[in-house]
UniProtKB/TrEMBL annotation:
Record carries keyword Transferase: no
Function summary: Regulatory protein of the TOL plasmid xyl operons. XylS activates the xylXYZLTEGFJQKIH operon required for the degradation of toluene, m-xylene and p-xylene.
Record-annotated HTH araC/xylS-type domain positions: 197-296
Superkingdom assignment: Bacteria
Single Gene Ontology MF annotation: DNA-binding transcription factor activity
Signal sequence, renumbered to the chain: none
Protein known as: Helix-turn-helix domain-containing protein
Classification via PANTHER family: HTH-TYPE DNA-BINDING TRANSCRIPTIONAL ACTIVATOR EUTR, HTH-TYPE TRANSCRIPTIONAL ACTIVATOR RHAS-RELATED
Coiled-coil positions: none
Pfam family, one: HTH_18
Subcellular location: Cytoplasm
Record keywords, A-Z: DNA-binding, Transcription, Transcription regulation
Amino acid sequence: MRQSLRTTDIVEHANALPGWRQRYDQLSCGSLEGRLDVVQAGEVQLFRERLNQQVIQHICLPQNAVNILFPLAWPGVDDQGVMAEKYATVLLPNDEYRVFTPAGMDVLCMSIPYATLRNLLDEAVLHALMQLNRPKRVCLRAHRLVPGIVMFKSLMEGTPTSATLQSLTLMVVEWLERVIDVPQETPRPSTRGYIVERCHQWLIEEPAASSNVLEFCRRLKVSRRTLQYSFQSVAAVTPIQYMRSVRLNGARRALKEDPHASIADIAERWGFSHSSYFTLEYQKLFNELPSALRCVERS
């Protein structure tokens, strides 16, 4: 389901978001220009909200869901220490929030039910997350957030695919596991090495398969935290980073072997269904565009 609203009425704007109880009070003078775009993809809700005036937002969040906000534009400083450009913020449905949004505000939000996270997030992390009693800023470097924002915008502007939505959801899960502190179990060194080796083999044997962290946990019969710790210990990266890098290297080899092949086809062959996301991650890893390698090989 997709819906869009453009309005000059602050009350209409506040009441337009499905599942949210909100009251907005306009602070700055002038005509309001509000815009709200909402996509409901299964149980996950995505929306983008823009307002040209300063507003006090009184918000009761949807129950039984975690809400991740990405401010694209947040002029000025948030004295509450919750919102800031280039950071994500986790909001939980524990209480009513009163947020002072600046004129020119532009935010993305992803609302994920606990039931969905229960199948993705480590149980200890989910429990700690549900105990949070105030908003938590996801303090990750901007370059880690950019791929998620790119996918988010793509989902908002195009036709949401299950693969892209799953990729974005798993990326959010990775962010949460980075910022929520819980005690870690420590597998033996030999076990860690075995876990990484088996995952690597599966990636090479099944490059186009939609294998993800959950699938590898199921195959190996280990928890997400064990998988995470093993990759951090052996390769100093997360499982998602490792899998992405192996696939990108495989795609690069394929481009070198057949420079006349379609970049999109090779990307899909190596598990990247979203071409702009593939290009962004490829450039970040190799400091060049996929097309640059193809031009060199053709010459």
